[in-house]
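Hello,

Our lab assistant flagged a job as stuck in the queue for most of the afternoon. It eventually completed. Since we weren't sure the result was trustworthy after the delay, we are filing this so someone can double-check. Below is the sequence as submitted and the structure that was eventually returned. Let us know if re-running is recommended.
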Amino acid sequence: MLTAIVNEMRNSSGPVTLRYISRKLSLDESAVEGMIETLIHKGIVRDHARYLQELQTCGDVSFCNGCSQKNCPVSGNMPRTFSLVTIKKINH
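-- returned structure --
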């Protein structure tokens, strides 16, 4: 099933939501969320909200502490989105 999620992400035109993947694969969102967390842990998938939090960190000072604030200037009320991590090949 992890391969099916990766394939759906690969075939999408951009970042995907839990709802999109769960509907495409006819699975419960909570099941898909667990599988996506596994893919994130393996470094295959990027959680855009977490990525934005990482980008907002400078040294020991974090401008985003990952709160669920509804009017967040970083992520606002956007649904959680995910995409495949891309690895660029370096030509020697």
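-- support follow-up --
The delay was a queue issue, not a problem with the job. The result is valid. Residues 34 and 40 are 10 Å apart (CA to CA). The longest strand covers residues 81-84.
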